[in-house]
Amino acid sequence: MTDILLYLSCGLVAGGLGGYLGLGGGIVMVPYLTVVAGLDIATAVPVSVTAIVVNSFSASNEYVKKGMVDFELVVLLSLLMVAGSITGSSLSHVVPPAIPQTILTLLLVYTAFSLLKSNDKSKSGGLGNWHRRHLPAMLGLAGVTGILAGLVGIGGGVILVPGMHLIMAVPLTTARGTSSFLIGFSSAAASAVYLLNGDIDFHIAAPVILGILIGGKLGGFFGTTAKPTVIKVMFLVVMLYLAYKLTAPIIEAL
Amino acid sequence: MKQTRPFDASGIVIWQLMVWMAVFVYFSAVTVMLLAGMTVAEPLAKWGVVAILAATVAKLPLIARQFRRTGLSRFTALSYLLILLLLSTLLLGYLLR
Question: Least CA distance to A57: which residue of chain B?
Fold first, then answer.
């Protein structure tokens, strides 16, 4: 019984922080499941990817309502993300666990510091204002992000959002909305591969899914009242601790 | 001159909200069953995940329809290509098990 409550709390924390900070939740979920719940990364990744599909339904809906999702970009980037995700999730059986753990650690540190530096003063802009001439570079990035997302169990928003903003000059709010919507498709492809391989542990996935549904809503609600700086500093500390716990066994093994 | 209409995402918003509520009710029940130690909970969770994946793919025809309305035929075709890619993943994965 306590294990189910622990997995439920994982979904709550991942969904809550994800909802508040505009993340898919995978960047919190995989370290939480491995470090706090003590699961191995091969079990945590399929659960995380499946929960991200669910989270995309609620996380992206506010953006869709406000017209902050560029559906043309969704379709274009999803094609490459889905192909990458299928590749990444298929590679998970042949890649040693130390590799995804190391990639995840680097992404954790990068996300923690980039969130601390970021501000929410970005303006939302009209759709379709992005620089089409940089589309090939963005498509390439989407493919690579898809591979990493399928392998490491994250949605990929931590790479896609700055990528769309910096490479194609997509306004940050539109980039967030577009990313949160298209992550649903790429994560669904990865989840399907894991499902067919029998890699999803449903005893863990069910409470995590419920937790992320509740956490996502709470994160969005409390996000309007909490102080952003306090949350960001807390997030930085927790992420650095999780990064340390993830890499410590790898360093000891060397 | 060809008349184009704006992209209307209200159908997608309603669909996502309906799926969110259905998944919430379903997985609340499954989690309660897991807490009660009922063995039927895990197969039910599996079919719940299958339904979530199907609901995700079902968003694409809604997007394709709006692209067709707005006159963006290339993006309509790409939306269907994405559906094909997702479904072929399932089919290939199932056949290669």
Answer: B16
